[in-house]
Amino acid sequence: MSMVYRILVADDEKDVVESLQSRLIREGYLVSVAFDGEEALQRVKEDNPDIILLDLKMPKRNGFEVLQVIRKDYNDKWRPVIIVSAQTDFDSMKKGYSLEADHYLTKPVTMEVILHGIQTMISLIPMHK
To answer: Alpha-carbon distance 40 to 54, whole Å?
Structure first.
């Protein structure tokens, strides 16, 4: 039996969240959603996602802050975080990786690229057990 992975999609753009959610569900993933940084942390706490798709520009707490808290407070397991952001500048990418993001995708991004990123992260999970 193959494992079903839970993915958290955190982005303040409703249409982005909805299209990702419906596609990921079709691909067989369980999906949690959050529209701001506080909600994202709440979902991490309650739903214990395996993988997180994280936007950087969000209300209440930005993606960098969310990532920092995840790495500090939720280190029970390796939890791949894929930043998906319109911030394409080198400094943002550098900051994301310095806060231990596992992957950084820049918007606009195709669903195929996101799915590939998720599959890559899933393939690495057994190595972190």
So the answer is: 9
- What pLDDT was estimated at residue 111? 96
Residues in the chain: 129
- In one-letter notation, the amino acid at residue 75 is N
Q: Give 91: exposed, middle or buried? Use CB within 10 Å, 0-12, 13-18, 19+.
A: exposed
Max CA separation in the chain (angstroms): 42
Question: From the CB of residue 46, how many other CB atoms can be counted at a distance below 10 Å?
Answer: 9
Q: Give the C-alpha separation, 120 to 114, whole Å.
A: 10
Site of tokens 């506080």:
38
Q: Taking the complete model, does pTM exceed 0.90, yes or no?
A: yes
* CB of 52 closer than 8 Å to CB of 70: yes
Q: Is residue 107 over pLDDT 90?
A: yes
For the chain, which residues make up each domain, given as ranges?
A: 6-124
Domain 6-124: state its class: alpha beta
Percentage with pLDDT > 70 across the chain: 98
